[in-house]
Design brief:
By secondary structure, the chain is of the alpha/beta class. It has five helices and six strands, in the order E-H-E-H-E-H-E-E-E-H-H.
Length: 179
C-alpha cells in the first residue's frame, strides 16, 4: 500500500516581499505552492492509495480567500484523480472557540469526493476509508474546549484538565487498539 503523508503546508506563511508578475502572489508563496504541486503530482504519478495530510494548511485559521482557492485547487486535483485524501485539522487550522468553523471545514461542507476532514479523535476502519485495507487512529489537533466537549471531560477541575485529557485519550486509543 502506498500512503503519501505530509503536513505543515503553511502556504500563506510568507505573504510579503516581491510579487510574481503572472499570479500577483508573493514569490515566497509561489515557492510553497510549487512544493505542494510536487506533492500532488507525486501522489497522482505514483498512484498512491491514500494521501494523509496531518494539519496546518495555513498559518492561521482565517486564511485569505486567495490562499483558500490555491489550497482547494490542489486538493481538488487529488479528488478528481480519485485519490482518497484525509485532512487532519492542525492547531493553525482551528479556532479556539467551540463551534466556529476551522480552515478545512469547506471540504466537509461541500462533501468533496474522496476527501475526508478529521476534526475530532476517531478510529477509522476500511468502511470509513473507501474500502482500503487499513485502520487509522486519527488524533487531530483539538482545542481545549473542543476536547472537553468531544471527549466528555469534566470541567469542574481546570487544573486537572490535561491529566484528564491524557487519561481519556489513552482509554480511547486502548479501546480502539482492542478492536
Amino acid at each position: 500500500m502506498k500512503i503519501l503523508h505530509f503536513a505543515d503546508a503553511h502556504i500563506d506563511m510568507a505573504n510579503y516581499g516581491r510579487h510574481d508578475s503572472e499570479t500577483g502572489l508573493p514569490v515566497r508563496v509561489m515557492d510553497f505552492l510549487r512544493s505542494l504541486d510536487t506533492i500532488v503530482d507525486a501522489a497522482i504519478e505514483e498512484k498512491v492509495d491514500l494521501v494523509l495530510f496531518a494539519g496546518d494548511a495555513y498559518k492561521d485559521r482565517s486564511p485569505a480567500p486567495t490562499f483558500q482557492r490555491e489550497w482547494g485547487r490542489r486538493i481538488m486535483r487529488l479528488s478528481r484523480a480519485g485519490i482518497p485524501t484525509l485532512l487532519l485539522v492542525g492547531n493553525h487550522d482551528l479556532s479556539p472557540a467551540l463551534g466556529r468553523a476551522h480552515a478545512l471545514d469547506t471540504f466537509s461542507t461541500l462533501e468533496v469526493p474522496n476527501v475526508q476532514v478529521l476534526d475530532k479523535p476517531q478510529f477509522l476502519t476500511p468502511d470509513d476509508l473507501w474500502g482500503l485495507p487499513l485502520q487509522i487512529i486519527a488524533i487531530p489537533w483539538v482545542s481545549r474546549s473542543g476536547m472537553i466537549a468531544s471527549l466528555d471531560l469534566p470541567t469542574d477541575s481546570p487544573k486537572d484538565i490535561y491529566t484528564d485529557l491524557e487519561n481519556k485519550l489513552t482509554e480511547l486509543v486502548n479501546l480502539w487498539l482492542d478492536k
